[in-house]
Amino acid sequence: MSTPNDRYLTLDRLRSMIESGEVDTVVLGFTDMQGRLQGKRLHGRYFLDFALEHGTEGCNYLLAVDIDMNTVAGYSISSWERGYGDMEFVPDWDTLRLLPHLPATAMVQCDLVWLDHAPVVQSPRTILKHQLERVAAKDMVALAGTELEFIAFNNTYEDAHDRRWRDLTPVNQYNIDYSLIGTSRVEPLLRDIRNQMYAAGLDVEGAKGECNFGQHEIGFLYAEALVTADNHAVYKTAAKEIASQHGQAITFMAKYDEREGNSCHIHLSLRGADGSIVFGEGAERSPLYDQFVAGVLATMTDFTLLYAPNINSYKRFASASFAPTAVAWGTDNRTCAVRLVGHGASGRMENRLPGGDVNPYLALAAMLAGGLYGIENELELEDELVGNAYASDKPHVPHTLRAAREAFAASDMARAALGDDVVDHYVNMADVELAAFDAAVTDWELARTFERM
């Protein structure tokens, strides 16, 4: 795969920019279990003189911690007994780009390997690449787009922390879904994110308001699935940094309050390796398309943990909320977990289950694994749901992290597609989160029982 467009950097161009002083910082980043970009900032001269040839490493606990970076038990790859050794960061030079919102800074995204150069199979990027290799073996490629929503506040992250993330001021005080006047009030932030991301190599479509107070979405053009996941990680990090530069804060958490949550609808289609349409011509769906969708539906419960990875994720799954509750598909039906849209070259499925907290590599890997399961077993697609899926008798998606964890851990299909090492690793991630939540005393408990019980 080559760079998606000429806004990316070549290694020769980066070398020239460092020599001329245009770039003095090179970020080596990878995406962790929680979907965050982690890594190192290297001085440009050090990067050229040493890291370019000899590489760099990081502690293997980076794929074995909770969201607070606490070392936790249960991971086979990393522990006190194993000594918390290193992993090597291997740059994928096709991801090399400028980060124009940061002075004189370039970035390359990395794969993770052990010091003997064996891949770290639990790394999210490696998990997705494995599924893409399975797609390529069938002489196809996967195209994807992710639609991330966020809520923006006229508070800094520091102020939000001091307020314990309560009583913040959203940038809008009413429902601004498709509102031009509502979005124009936030245009300094939205425009900066759009333009900075375009300069970083992302193909920006546009921005629109959403339903919750201060909620917005910036959309990007679909691309090959790995490019989309890489760009998703860059955008999510950069958008927070740009908001901070404006003295504002944004959150991608799935459910900030009792109003509408932040979704991350994922659009996915397959093409022939030669660019041919395999999901059907005109309005007619191909058998392969139906089998793929049938596989995603059949495995949705098994893979819900990868679509909804946090305790908070499950607060989105509420009736009449535009977040799905039923495992069902429909044609342009936003009440279903899977919505089919477009036809011919634009024909694609939309997975409406993930929220803004999703790890895009894991969700895309799960969708591909499920779709391939459907193709390989020639699953028959059930009749589409017409009408309100919230009121249907279709099976519901798991409504708690614990239920999703149990389904994933027990799934023979997930273990066959992803491997025991991967399944056990992310089951332990769920166990860590469940234990932390079970030990926490929430605001809800205090408000209901401090005086009255």
CATH superfamily of the largest domain: Glutamine synthetase/guanido kinase, catalytic domain
Low-confidence stretches: none
CATH topology (level 3) name of the largest domain: Creatine Kinase, Chain A, domain 2
Q: What is the total number of structural domains?
A: 2
Largest sheet: 9 strands, mixed
Task: Summarize the helix and strand pattern as letters.
Answer: HEEHEEEEHEHHHEEEHEEHHEEEHHHHH
CATH uppermost class of the largest domain: Alpha Beta
SS element count, helices: 14
What is the alpha-carbon Rg in Å?
22 Å
Alpha-beta classification:
alpha+beta
Count of β-strands: 15
**Overall outline:** globular
CATH architecture of the largest domain: 2-Layer Sandwich
Question: What percentage of the residues does DSSP assign to strands (E)?
Answer: 15-25%
- The overall pLDDT, averaged over residues, is 96
Q: Give the fraction of residues assigned to helices.
A: 25-40%
